[in-house]
Amino acid sequence: MLNKSFTPFPILTTERLTLRPLVIADEQEIFTLRSDSEINKYLDRQLSNTIDDARNFINKVNENINKNDSLYWAITLSDKNILIGTICLFGFDENDKCEIGYELLTNFQGQGIMKEAAEKVIDYAFNTIKVRKIEAFFHRDNQSSIKLLEKLSFRNSNEPDETNPDLICYRLTNSNDNLK
Fold first, then answer.
1. Among 95, 108, 151, 152, which one is least packed by beta carbons within 10 Å?
2. By the 8 A CB rule, do 120 and 14 touch?
3. What is the layout of strands, in order, in the sheet containing 12-13?
4. pTM of the entire structure?
5. What's the rounded mean pLDDT across residues 38-61?
6. Distance CA 134, CA 176 (A)
7. CA dist., res. 17 & res. 4, Å (int)
8. pLDDT value of residue 125
9. What is the pLDDT of residues 73-122, one digit of tens each?
10. Rounded distance between C-alpha atoms, residue 149 and residue 137, angstroms
């Protein structure tokens, strides 16, 4: 049974990072993430055109958190409270499964930041929320995501996405389940 109560919001910390809730003050960084063509080239989503788009997105994310439908963290460096990326868990289902998603501003990529953030979120998902499986769907050409997920022990499900043949699914199963 999932422990899906996200109040109070779980602030997670690592050696270099603080994962905290999104706030309206993050609107410029969210706008940059959601309007950058390089970051969004593999994502099937509408690009943000205005700061209002970013503000509306932040409000929608926080509504979903309040309904315990998803968790969405702002990734910040611990010594600065400025958003450099995001990571989320969503799509929780009755099979104790969820999906993970993430994005990082380009000038922070290649520094191990997303791996560090993802390890913390995966630990939280398995040990606090008690999910049994985490999935990640991404474009087959997104080599950065493939490398990251494989470093995190995700494995290709080898099941094509029924709605988009360009998407592939990687899965990670909670190793604690094997101990029961």
1. 95
2. yes
3. 12-13, 17-21, 71-77, 83-90, 97-104, 133-139, 167-173, 155-156
4. 0.93
5. 89
6. 13
7. 24
8. 96
9. 999 999 999 999 999 999 999 889 999 999 999 999 999 999 999 999 99
10. 11
